[in-house]
């Protein structure tokens, strides 16, 4: 599927294996596209509007051609209906070179692309990819909902310019029983190398019971598709293993010197996350208790916090009538950016989204409180000194006087060369120390994995 957004028109091309056809949908960048049912998406970015229009068109086509099943059977019970699907790439083209109005919608104050808007678009595109995979062969999706379970990683490889056209693409890379991994990329028109890569995990749920629903298996055919499927399987197995072995996971004590900004004895010793948390807390105590003489270029974690609170408006709903996950990620990104900016004293450069977890859905009318903090800074995990920001989104219910965390987000920003030295962040409680150690371990493990993959790729290419 290919969608173009630019000028006064968006051309949409979608190929269906059984009955090839061309379909076009007109959309002006200065006028929101409208869906025929509930108007979801009308107040989003032009790309989100277009993608949801396309999804609605596909849904209606599937409903017309669906073979009605017996009322006694469900998708979860009728495995014969789950035909394996080949990976199909869905693409969206931003024609910034032709459309000044579209370009203005994605412009940030530093004349670069608004990363938060692109992340919001990525979530919408991933939703389209998931829906297309699960609704293939006129599959009836009326009783199934697809939701974003997590964003495992979004990495900015280099900064994009609004002088170039940009293409977003997404494809299912791996499928389990009721979940799927979708690999996303963003490329500038002048390069075949992506400037942004992302991994989204979607899950299928029964609309009534909320239980897991089986989805179509994936049938990779080309060597590239098979390699992507194998990589996705390894990532899924790795996540399961990490959850099981979390308490026993170990890394070298020397890594902590980066976070503590001080040397440690027995730095070549392997320690657990809990031991690392104890080392962080014990290192922070004298500086917390004697700030006048010990607090050198260090700040308490509580001093890094920023927050904001929003009423979730109907205009932010998705096609299921709940608050669009991409909107929540964009709000979290903007708060994380501001937090890194205030902390680092210079305009930060977005590096990556380390992890986003959607724990519970957010509904229209909910009062959502976003709170940020800097977990730690690092000199070694990235090319430039980096700031690692955590955002927790909580749904607040004043009538019931309770609150619960609905989403968690982790972002990494780099400060430009020549910026002032970053302060060390000190945990004030053991829970804060454990949170820092856990997130730091995840980033260290990711860095080691990246270096291993690069080494293997270099060796295979030699």
From TrEMBL:
Keyword entries, A-Z: Hydrolase, Repeat, Transit peptide
One of the protein's GO biological processes: acyl-CoA metabolic process
Compositionally biased intervals (Basic and acidic residues): 224-234
The keyword Transit peptide appears for this protein: yes
Gene3D superfamilies: Hotdog Thioesterase
Signal peptide: none
Domain HotDog ACOT-type: 84-208, 302-419
Keyword Transit peptide on entry: yes
Chain residue ranges for the region called Disordered: 224-243
Superkingdom per UniProt: Eukaryota
One MF term in the entry's GO annotations: fatty acyl-CoA hydrolase activity
Transmembrane segments: none
Name used for this protein in its record: Acyl-coenzyme A thioesterase 9, mitochondrial
């Amino acid at each position: 599927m290919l969608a173009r957004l630019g000028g006064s028109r968006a051309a949409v091309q979608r190929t269906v294996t059984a009955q090839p056809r061309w379909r076009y949908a007109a959309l002006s960048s200065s006028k929101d596209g409208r869906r025929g049912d509930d108007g979801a998406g009308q107040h989003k970015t032009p790309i989100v509007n277009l993608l949801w229009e396309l999804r609605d068109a596909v849904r209606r086509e599937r409903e017309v051609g669906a073979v009605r099943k017996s009322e006694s059977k469900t998708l979860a019970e009728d495995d014969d209906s789950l035909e394996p699907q080949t990976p199909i790439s869905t693409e969206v083209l931003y024609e910034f070179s032709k459309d000044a109005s579209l370009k203005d919608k994605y412009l940030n104050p530093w004349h670069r692309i608004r990363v938060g808007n692109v992340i919001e678009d990525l979530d919408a595109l991933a939703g389209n990819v998931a829906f297309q995979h699960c609704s293939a062969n006129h599959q009836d999706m009326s009783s199934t909902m697809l939701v974003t379970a997590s964003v495992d990683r979004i990495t900015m490889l280099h900064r994009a310019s609004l002088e170039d056209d940009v293409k977003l693409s997404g494809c299912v890379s791996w499928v389990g029983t009721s979940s799927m991994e979708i690999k996303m990329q963003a490329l500038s028109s002048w390069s075949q190398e992506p400037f942004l890569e992302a991994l989204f995990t979607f899950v299928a749920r029964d609309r009534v019971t909320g239980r897991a629903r089986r989805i179509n298996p994936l049938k990779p055919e080309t060597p590239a598709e098979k390699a992507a499927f194998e990589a996705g399987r390894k990532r899924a197995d790795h996540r399961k293993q990490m959850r099981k072995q979390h308490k026993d996971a170990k890394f070298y004590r020397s890594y902590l010197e980066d976070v503590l900004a001080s040397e440690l004895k027995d730095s070549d010793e392997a320690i657990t996350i809990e031991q690392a948390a104890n080392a962080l807390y014990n290192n922070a105590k004298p500086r917390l208790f004697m700030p006048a003489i010990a607090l050198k270029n260090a700040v308490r974690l509580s001093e890094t916090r920023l927050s904001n609170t929003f009423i979730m408006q109907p205009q932010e709903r998705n096609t299921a009538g709940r608050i669009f996950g991409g909107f929540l990620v964009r709000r979290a990104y903007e708060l994380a950016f501001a937090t890194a900016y205030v902390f680092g004293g210079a305009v930060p450069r977005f590096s990556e989204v380390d992890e986003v977890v959607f724990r519970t859905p957010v509904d229209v009318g909910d009062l959502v409180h976003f709170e940020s903090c800097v977990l730690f800074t690092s000199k070694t995990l990235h090319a430039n000194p980096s700031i690692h920001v955590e955002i927790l989104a909580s749904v607040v219910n004043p009538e019931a006087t309770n609150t619960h965390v609905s989403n968690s987000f982790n972002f990494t920003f780099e400060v430009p060369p020549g910026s002032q030295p970053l302060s060390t962040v000190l945990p004030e409680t053991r829970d804060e120390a454990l949170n820092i150690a856990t997130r730091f371990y995840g980033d260290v493990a990711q860095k080691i994995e990246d270096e291993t993959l690069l080494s293997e790729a270099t060796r295979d290419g030699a």
